[in-house]
Design a protein that fits this description.
Elements (H helix, E strand, L loop, with lengths): L1 H17 L3 E3 L10 H4 L2 E14 L4 E14 L5 H10 L3 E7 L1 H5 L3 E2 L5 H21 L4 E5 L7 H15 L6 E5 L7 H8 L8 H10 L4 E5 L17 E7 L9 H11 L8 E5 L8 H20 L1
Parallel strand pairs: 1-4, 3-5, 4-6, 6-7, 7-8, 8-9, 9-10
Antiparallel strand pairs: 2-3
The chain binds zinc ion.
């Protein structure tokens, strides 16, 4: 507990010193972006995990099981949000898993319907999100990597569940979608998608009509054609300009070049440079150098 607190404070300070405008807890307190939330949910059996194909059977994972009605056991991120709010005057951001991605990362032995299960999780996410907002969190992001896998379901219930998770929030709300990192199955899958990744063409127009304020996605070294960003008209777009899957440090010029390219499709007031996929685990010096490259590249782009 103390070590997590220390690590969170340290990375808060490093983000500030690097020149990051909207800071986070650096995800120092969570092991896994979905399981970390599920540990706070009643109705989930973590003791008898089962093997299940996830992301449309892209890979097998050992997943916990939904065995009864879902209920929050208590607060999920209160310690981190209070710590951040007390120690910084910058805007602060917290992340939660999105309902569709949670549904795709558990085995269900109780609800029997993916949409219904998503709505049940969305209600819990909303409870936590409202509490985070009360604690002074400025941006709440839902991570939905499942959104480029189940494009049809995104339209029939994915966005509805996301909006339920964000219901009543006055702080900025964000959804992060991405093609996944970290494991070989994701890399292999991406190799099958061809030279242009156009999955988002189907869901961006629906996202643009949703009540979510911001969309965060990977741009540097990504095969998503940036012209698709036009389909997010009216939304803030968080442009990934730092590759979290490589140890090479981006130069400010490279970062600025991606921002320039994206600015052809996103008005400046809606464009926020960030990393491709949150604060991924990597070597400490590399993480720090990449944070600095992000801030320096954004500053260079502003000057130009
Ligand atoms: Zn991601």
């Amino acid at each position: 507990m103390q070590a997590k607190r220390d690590a969170t404070l340290l990375w808060l300070k490093e983000q500030e010193d690097a020149g990051i405008d909207i800071v986070s807890d650096g995800e120092q307190s969570r092991q896994h972006f979905v399981h970390g939330f599920l540990e706070f949910v009643d109705g989930i059996d973590f003791d008898h995990k089962v093997k299940m194909g996830i992301r449309n059977n892209r890979y097998d994972a050992m997943v916990p099981v939904v065995v009864g009605p879902l209920r929050l056991k208590g607060r999920v991120h209160q310690a981190e949000s209070r710590l951040l709010r007390f120690h910084t005057n910058k805007k602060i951001k917290m992340t939660l898993p999105g309902p569709m991605t949670i549904v795709d990362t558990v085995a269900d032995r109780h609800y029997g319907d993916r949409a219904e299960l998503a709505m049940a999780f969305a209600a819990l996410l909303n409870e936590e999100a409202r509490a985070l907002e009360k604690e002074g969190v400025d941006v709440i992001q839902f991570d939905e990597p499942a959104f480029n896998v189940y494009m049809q379901e995104v339209k029939t219930w994915g966005i509805a569940a996301l909006e339920l998770a964000a219901r009543g929030l006055r702080c900025a709300t964000c959804v992060h979608i991405c093609y996944g990192y970290g494991i070989k199955a994701n890399l292999d899958w991406k190799a099958t998608l061809g030279g242009e990744w156009r999955q988002y063409e189907e869901i961006f127009p629906v996202l643009a009509k949703s009540r979510i304020d911001q969309v965060s996605l990977e741009c540097i070294h990504s095969k998503v054609p940036l012209e698709l960003l036009k389909l997010l008209k009216g939304k803030d777009v968080l442009i990934g300009v730092i590759d979290v899957a490589s140890d090479r440090i981006e130069t400010p010029e490279e970062v600025s070049a991606v921002i320039k390219k994206a600015s052809k499709y996103v008005p400046k007031k809606h464009l926020f440079p960030c990393t491709n996929c949150g604060m991924a685990p990597m070597g400490r010096d590399i993480a720090l150098a990449k944070l600095k490259a992000l801030a320096a590249g954004a500053a260079l782009a502003r000057k130009r």
